[in-house]
């Protein structure tokens, strides 16, 4: 049985997110760390981000093509084993039963020990960012697919053999309880983000990423006093709310 401490590395993980670059902004340090340690990582991107630009030179089709290429390059940098695109429309995502079933099919096929997804309740960040509705929808439908649907024998037998996910790592959450030390992989995270040229252009976002990860490391160290799990004296960290679905 895995132990969910700072050094925990699952055998396999599936990151279910809305857009190319969501994984990179939120959990890429953890992904790179786990992949380096032998975890088989699958990315599931529900959209290809085909509305994600104000640049009139793109069509939805050409933008999707570019962003899928960027995501594949980023996945290679992070050490992910595979990238799956479900080709739903950007800015149109809703957590439907049909999408839940698509995710159940992927979960049952790749059988991840851990699923990572966004917190569907995180509507506001500070006073400047209303969370993208696709992020909320992706988080909600991912959680619904993990529990209970993927593990129920009588539900959708044509979608594969039932599979029980051990734990869900919920990112971009207002209520984190676990931090992963990403000091060793923060550079890889920044490199993966820089693959998303269509989104970043010439913007250097590394100071922002470093600041976020430094803030999380400080929160982790403060949380230690409150009895929360942390990763010791890490310089950079990523934060999660971890739901453990398997009894240890
Ligand atoms: Zn996004």
Can you describe this structure in just a few lines?
By secondary structure, the protein is α/β, with parallel strands linked by helices. It has 8 helices and 9 strands. The strands form 2 sheets. It has a 7-stranded mixed β-sheet, with helices on both faces. A two-stranded antiparallel ribbon has the order 5-6.
Descriptive report:
By secondary structure, the protein is of the alpha/beta class. It has one domain (12-244): Rossmann fold, CATH 3.40.50. It is built from 8 helices and 9 strands. It is globular and about 50 Å long. Zinc ion (ZN) binds at residues 18-19, 22, 132, 135.
Question: Notable features of this structure?
Answer:
248 residues; alpha/beta; Rossmann fold; seven-stranded mixed beta sheet; two-stranded antiparallel sheet; 38% helix; binds zinc ion
Annotate the secondary structure layout.
Elements: E1 12-17, H1 22-26, H2 28-36, E2 40-47, H3 60-78, E3 82-88, H4 97-110, E4 114-118, E5 124-125, E6 129-130, H5 133-146, E7 167-171, E8 178-181, H6 186-194, H7 197-200, H8 206-225, E9 237-244
Parallel strand pairs: 1-2, 1-4, 2-3, 4-7
Antiparallel strand pairs: 5-6, 7-9, 8-9
Zinc ion (ZN) binds near residues 19, 22, 132 and 135.
């Amino acid at each position: 049985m895995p132990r969910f401490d700072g050094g925990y590395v699952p055998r396999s993980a599936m990151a279910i997110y809305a857009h190319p670059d969501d994984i990179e902004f939120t959990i890429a340090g953890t992904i790179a760390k786990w992949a380096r340690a032998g975890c088989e990582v699958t990315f599931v991107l529900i959209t290809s981000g085909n509305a994600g630009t104000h640049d009139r030179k793109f069509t939805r089709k050409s933008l999707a093509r570019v962003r899928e290429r960027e995501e594949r390059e980023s996945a290679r940098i992070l050490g992910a084993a595979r990238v799956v695109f479900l080709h739903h429309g950007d800015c149109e995502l809703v957590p439907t039963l049909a999408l839940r079933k698509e995710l159940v099919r992927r979960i049952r096929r790749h059988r991840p020990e851990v699923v990572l997804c966004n917190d569907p309740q995180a509507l506001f960040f500070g006073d400047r960012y209303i969370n993208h509705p696709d992020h909320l929808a992706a988080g909600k439908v991912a959680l619904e697919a993990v529990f209970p649907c993927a593990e129920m024998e009588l539900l959708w037998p044509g979608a594969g053999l039932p599979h029980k996910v051990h734990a869900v790592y919920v990112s971009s959450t207002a209520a984190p309880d676990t931090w992963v030390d990403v000091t060793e992989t923060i550079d890889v995270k920044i490199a993966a983000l820089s693959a998303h040229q269509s989104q970043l252009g010439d913007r250097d976002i590394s100071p922002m990423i470093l600041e976020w990860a430094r803030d999380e490391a400080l929160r982790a160290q403060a949380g230690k006093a409150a009895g929360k799990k942390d990763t010791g004296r890490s310089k950079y960290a990523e934060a999660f709310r971890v739901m453990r679905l398997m009894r240890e």
